[in-house]
Every structure is written in structure tokens, then in C-alpha cells.
Amino acid sequence: MNAPENIAKIPSTAHAASPLAKQAAATFDQLGLSLTDRLGADLPVFSPIDGSELATLGMDTPGDIDAVVANARTAFAAWKLVPAPHRGELVRRYGALVREHKEALSLLLSIENGKILTEARGEVQEVIDICEYAVGLSRQLFGLTIASERPEHRLTEYWHPMGVLGLISAFNFPAAVWAWGTTVALVCGDSAIWKPSEKTPLTALAFAGLLEKAAADYDLAPANLIQVVVGDARCGTAIADHPDVAIVSATGSVRMGQDVAVRLARRFARPVLELGGNNAAIIAPSADLDLALRGAVFAATGTCGQRCTTLRRLIVHNSIRDAFVQRLIATFATLRIGTPLDDATHVGPLIDRMAFDGMQRALEQARAEGGIVHGGERLDIEGGADGYYVRPAIAEMPGQTAIVREETFAPILYVMGYDTLDEAIALQNGVSQGLSSSIFTSDVREAERFQSAEGSDCGIVNVNIGTSGAEIGGAFGGEKVTGGGRVSGSDSWKNYMRRATATVNYSASLPLAQGVKFDLDIDP
Ligand code: NAD
Asked: Rounded CA gap, 175 and 203, in Å?
């Protein structure tokens, strides 16, 4: 079925399909995917670019989760027996499909999420990169051989597939976070269920649709290896509560994570929690200030301030603070704000009105707490109709007040001063979140202290780069209320497998560990 017909069949769309809706539908056509089975009347999906409706989908309900999990269990029983390098072959094929359709997927992602095209392309590239990473990993899922204290004994550690992965994701990285977890879980031998954000289900259906296609063409892949649940938080809850979902990877707000974590703890399921951040950069007097400025502006305004790693707090040495803030204000004024589909744009729209209202409330509170705010107002953008475009804000604060300690998911950069590095590190660590941090300095002592045990308490610690834009090779995640999870990178694959410790005795006697004696008189 061709895509414009899909849109015409959407029951609740009274008006003609918008140009963006047609573009989104055409993308599905280009990918060889059909939305027909997913159309319905429950969930209107809007583009943040102009607020127009892209499609209306039917929604799964919590009552559907039992059947989805049962399918995933059946798929797991077959998939766990496929040798890991052959599981990698599925991911290799999927990566090739994503690479082939990179441009179409980037366009869809940009239309539905609102991030500028270059960042959308970056996110799709991240999916391709993680596929390659996971393929390599499929031949390196190794355990240890450990020295046994007993003679003629071998002590080893094995890693086995864990079970069904339930992955709940946020709107701001609608594809990459899913791919980080799912491709690695697939090579580890798990089956996967994805509940994407209800704000970005089309991107999810496109990325998962290509994976389903790759699986359908691969005779070793069982049916229902990957399933998508289009639903709201209630479906997320049903996944978190389901006794047959072994691992739940949940990315989103701290509030969501606090609810999910308790549910998982109650049934001892494995959590991988990737929650909110409140990331800071310290600008030391010895910093290369041009570099610091570029790094700070990209980290603060990229994805319109809607990255979990967005720079939200700038801690500037008092000797350079006023001059640096003036340069920041001047640079913010040069940012091109507009449609994300124009390659010249730096900053696209916020996801929706709720995000805009949250930003305005935060700015009001910042003023009430003694802050001086520059920017932050809504902008009228040609072709932007009902989109929420804002000028990124800088708020000069008298200290780390209550609003500064909160994560507001919008482009607001709070600036504070410091005199000593101890003071700067105390400010950096003085919030409940612990995701990403950075220091701009040319002083090696400062750089090393910041990374040491007495430095930043975050999961990501950078020197002379901003807080955002992590590479897939390193473990990604943060501490404190950020949840402690590491969804991908480094040895995070262990989150998707279970460990077995095996001892083999190849002697003719039975020595006990720790020298325990238990002599028996046994008739030969
Ligand atoms: P959100 O918490 O509103 O929603 C995230 C997902 O959780 C959605 O799929 C939603 O339906 C689901 N959900 C919400 N409440 C739930 C519940 N009680 N039980 C189960 N599922 C539930 O977050 P959002 O607005 O989509 O995303 C922004 C947030 O995500 C920010 O706080 C950001 O920092 C965070 N985030 C963190 C990372 C990271 O790696 N640490 C990455 C991306 C986004």
C-alpha cells in the first residue's frame, strides 16, 4: 500500500494530510514498510516542526502485554540456542539495511522528533555503529578462567543468554538508545520487546520494521524476536511488572525510573536505568576559552536542550566569568533557530507545548531566585505554525538555587561563579543527578583531580569537550538518581546475560574448598 493512502485512512484526521505527514508516510513507503496494521484512533502523533498531525495510531493496552511476552519467551527459547556469531549475522544484516536507508530514516526522525537533520543523521549513524560494535561482540562474549585452590580442578565463568528484554525509551533519542540495548541483547541471545515513547512511535516502527524485515529474511531468527508495543506509561508498567521479562532497560525521567525500579526490585528483575541528568562544565582560568565557548554552546543548545547529557550548569572561574558570559550571550544571539530540515539551522523546536511551558516556569523561578535571564522567549518561525521554537536561555544565577538543581528538559544554561577548584567540584557534585560532567582547563593537575575519586561523581567525565555527544565504545550512563545503569558500551553486554560459575574436578579425589574436612567411610 502506498503511504499517502495510509494517511487518508487515518480515521481521526479530519483535515487533509499535512506536507510533513505526506513526507513521513512516503518514508515508510521508501523503506518498504506498511503502517496499515498500526493505524487506529487512539494516539495522534504530531510533528514538533509545525504541530501538524503525522498519523493516528492504535494503541496497545496493558492487557496485550501477556501475549507479547509469551511470544517473546517462545522466541527466546529458540534464539538462545543459535551460536552467538550467527546471532551477530542478523545484526550485521540489520546494520546494512539501516545504512542503505540512512537518509530516509534521518528525515523521519527529524520530522517526528524535531532535532536538526545533522543530529538526526548522527543518531542514525549511531545505530549503524552500534550494529558493527554488536557484530564484533558476538565473537567476544567470553568468561574468565580463574585459578582454583584445589589440585586438578578447573574454575571458570560462563555467560548465557538471560531471557526477555523489555526496553522502555524516551522521545529525545527515539532510535539510538533502543539500538544500544537491543542489538547487544540480540547477540547475547535475548529476545526483545520495545515500548517507545508515545511521542515518537513512527520512528520506532520504522527502525523496528527494518529489523523485523532482516529477521524475516534470516532463517535462524525465530518469529517475534523483536516486538514493538505502541502504548503509554501503563504498558511500560505492565512490562516492568511482568514476571517473564528478565531485564528491563528504562530510559526517561527520574520520576519514571523511581516507579519502575521499585517494581523491578519487588520481583528481583534486572534493571538497566538511564534517567535524568543535570550536567555541568567547569571553565577554569587556564582554559582555551574559544574551545570552551564552542563546547559549551553546542552542549547547551544541541537538540534544543533536550539531550540527557545537555549542558545545564556552567561553573566559571570568577576572574573570567563576566567576559565569558558576554561572549556566551553574543554567541547565543547568532544561533540560527528554525526548521530542523534546513541544513543551516542550529536549533530546532521543542518537542511540544508541555516542554515550552516547563521552560517558561523554570525561567520564572530562576528570576524569582535572583537570576538574570537572557533569551528564552518563543519565536515565530516561518512555516513553524504550531511549533514551539525558543531562543536558548542563559540565566546568571547568584548560586546553585533550587531551580538549578532540577533538570528542566529545555535549553536553559545556568551560570555560576567559583574561586577554588574545591568549590567548583562541590557545585558540580551538589545535585542529585550524576550523568555527565566536564572541565575546560589547560592545567593537567586540575584535569586529573577532576577525574579522580575526589573529583566529579558522574558516570561521564570529560576534559576539554562538552558534556554531550558520547561515543558508543564507552559505557554510557550515570550515578545517583540517574539510575546507575549502563545500557551499552565497554562491558555493558553483561547486563544482557546471566553468569554461571563452573568448577570441574578432574582428579580422583574430592578435596573441599577452604580445607574443610568431611571424611566418610564408604564401602568400595
Ligand atoms: P518520560 O519519563 O516521560 O518517558 C520515558 C518513557 O517511559 C516513555 O516511553 C514513557 O511512556 C515511559 N513511562 C513513563 N512513566 C512510566 C512508568 N511509570 N512506568 C513505565 N514506563 C513509564 O521521559 P521523556 O520525557 O520521554 O524523556 C526525557 C527524560 O529522559 C529526561 O529526564 C532525560 O534526561 C531522560 N533521558 C535519559 C537518558 C540517559 O541515558 N540517562 C537518555 C535519554 C533521555
From this structure: 7
5 catalytic residue (yes or no): no
Residue 506 pLDDT greater than 50, yes or no: yes
Check whether 14 has a pLDDT greater than 50. no
Nearest to 53, CA basis, from 27, 29, 19, 6: 19
Helix/strand number for the chain, H first, E second: 15, 21
Angle between helices 117-137 and 84-100 (to 10 degrees): 160
Cα 211 from Cα 218, distance rounded (Å): 11
Q: How many angstroms does the Cα of residue 274 sit away from the middle of ligand 1? A: 8
Q: In which residue are the cell numbers 503525522 written?
A: 54
**Which of 274, 362, 352, 347 minimizes the C-alpha distance to 312?**
362
Helices (H), 221-320: 233-241, 254-266, 289-301
Going by pLDDT thresholds of 50, 70 and 90, the confidence category of residue 524 is: confident
Distance in Å, CA 169 to ligand 1 centroid: 6
**Nearest atom of ligand 1 to the alpha carbon of 259:** 18
Pick from 65, 197, 242, 262 the residue to mutate for probing ligand 1's pocket: most ligand atoms within 8 Å of its CB: 197
Paired residues of 479 in beta bridges: 434
Which entry of 53, 119, 274, 446 is annotated as an active-site residue? 274
What is the best residue among 197, 256, 458 to mutate for testing ligand 1's pocket, by most ligand atoms within 8 Å of CB?
Answer: 256
Q: For residue 124, how far is its CA from the centre of ligand 1 (angstroms)?
A: 20
How far apart (Å, rounded) are the C-alpha atoms in residues 276 and 298? 19
122-153 residue pLDDT tens? 999 999 999 999 999 999 999 999 999 999 99
Q: Whose CA is nearest to atom 9 of ligand 1?
A: 197
What are 395's three cell numbers? 540565566
* Distance, CA of 80 to CA of 295 (rounded, Å): 44
This prediction has a pTM of: 0.96
Q: Which residues pair with 396 in a beta bridge?
A: 372, 415
> Rounded CA gap, 443 and 284, in Å?
9
- Cell representation of residue 156: 571458570
pLDDT in tens, 294-308: 999 999 999 999 999
Is the CB of residue 347 less than 8 Å from the CB of residue 392? yes
Residue-wise pLDDT for 195-239, tens only, equals 999 999 999 999 999 999 999 999 999 999 999 999 999 999 999
> What is the average pLDDT value for the chain, to the nearest integer?
96
Q: Is the pLDDT of residue 6 over 60?
A: no
Question: Distance between CA atoms of 461 and 32, rounded to whole angstroms?
Answer: 42
Q: Is 274 a catalytic site residue?
A: yes
**Contact present, 448 and 239 (Cβ < 8 Å):** no
Q: Which of 260, 214, 247 is nearest to 72 (CA)?
A: 247
φ, ψ of residue 339 to 5 degrees: the values are -65, 135
What average pLDDT does the segment 464-472 reach?
95
308 pocket-lining for ligand 1 (C-beta < 6 Å): yes
> How many of the other CB atoms lie within 10 Å of CB of 100?
12
